[in-house]
Design goal:
231 residues, alpha/beta, seven-stranded mixed sheet, 6 helices, globular, binds iron/sulfur cluster
C-alpha cells in the first residue's frame, strides 16, 4: 500500500518536509493531527516552513477530554483552523445498535470494524481532497513502524505523497523540542500515556513497556494499528 521514495535516513525534519512538499503534485497538503506530542512538533515546524498547510483531525467520538483541550489550545496558540472529519452517522448508528458500545474488546475483527467506521473511512474521505499528507509518525514508535520512511507514496490513497518529517526522531528529541517551544502537550502524557488514541482503547503504560503498549493492550504488538497507516 505504501511505496518508499526516500531510503535516505538521518535527514533533518525540515529537509524531509520541504523535499516532500515539493513532490506533492498539487497545492492542497494536509497535516493529519491526532494531537500527539509528535503532531504538535510537526505543526510548530509547519508554521515556519509551510504555514499554508491545512490541519485536519478525525473526531472518532471516543477521544479523551484532554485531547479536545489540546485542540483548543492549538487554536489559541497558532490562530489556526482545524478541519474536523466525523464518522458517517448511519454506519455508526448501525454499529452501536447491533453490537453495543464496546464491541472492539470482543475480537480483532470487531476492533477493526470500529476503527474502520470511526477512523479509516473519515481519513479516506479527507484524503480524497488532498494532494499529499503529513504525519508525526516515527520509527521508534514500535514494531509496526520500523520500516517507515521520511517520504513515501501512499498507494492506498491515490498515490499521494505521505511525509513523515520526524521519522528518525527519538523520544528525547521530541520532548526536548516540545519543552523548548512550550507546546500545549496533552496532560495525559504526564500520567503515563506516551501514545494516546481513543479513550476506551488507551491505557497508561508501566515502566519498561513499549511506548505503544497502552494502545489496544489486549492485542498482540503486530496488530497495534488502526488502519490509518496501511503499509
Ligand atoms: S481506537 Fe477503539 S474506540 Fe477508537 S475507533 Fe478504534 S476500536 Fe473504536
Amino acid at each position: 500500500m505504501i511505496e518508499s521514495i526516500s531510503q535516505k535516513t538521518n535527514r533533518s525534519a525540515e529537509e524531509i518536509l520541504t523535499t516532500g512538499l515539493q513532490k506533492a503534485v498539487g497545492p492542497r497538503v494536509g497535516m493529519a493531527c491526532s494531537f500527539s506530542v509528535e503532531d504538535l512538533v510537526v505543526i510548530d515546524l509547519l508554521r515556519k516552513y509551510a504555514p499554508q498547510t491545512v490541519i485536519f483531525a478525525i473526531d472518532t467520538g471516543r477521544l479523551h477530554e484532554e485531547t479536545y483541550e489540546v485542540a483548543e489550545a492549538l487554536l489559541q496558540k497558532y490562530q489556526v483552523q482545524i478541519e474536523w472529519y466525523l464518522p458517517q452517522t448511519e454506519e455508526l448508528q448501525q454499529l452501536e445498535r447491533e453490537k453495543g458500545l464496546f464491541s472492539f474488546r470482543e475480537s480483532l475483527e470487531n476492533r477493526h470494524q470500529c476503527c474502520h467506521i470511526r477512523k479509516v473511512e473519515p481519513l479516506d474521505r479527507a484524503l480524497k481532497t488532498y494532494n499529499g499528507w503529513i504525519t508525526g509518525q516515527r520509527r521508534a514508535q514500535g514494531a509496526t513502524r520500523n520500516s517507515l520512511e521520511g517520504i513515501e507514496i501512499d498507494k492506498a490513497h491515490g498515490n499521494i505523497v505521505k511525509i513523515n518529517p520526524l521519522v528518525d526522531w527519538s523520544d528525547e528529541q521530541v520532548w526536548a523540542y516540545a519543552t523548548e517551544h512550550k507546546l500545549p502537550v496533552n496532560r495525559l502524557h504526564n500520567q503515563g500515556y506516551p501514545s494516546i488514541g481513543c479513550a476506551p482503547c488507551t491505557r497508561a503504560i508501566k515502566p519498561g513497556e513499549d511506548i505503544r503498549a497502552g494502545r489496544w493492550w489486549w492485542e498482540n504488538p503486530e496488530n497495534k494499528e488502526c488502519g490509518l497507516h496501511r503499509r
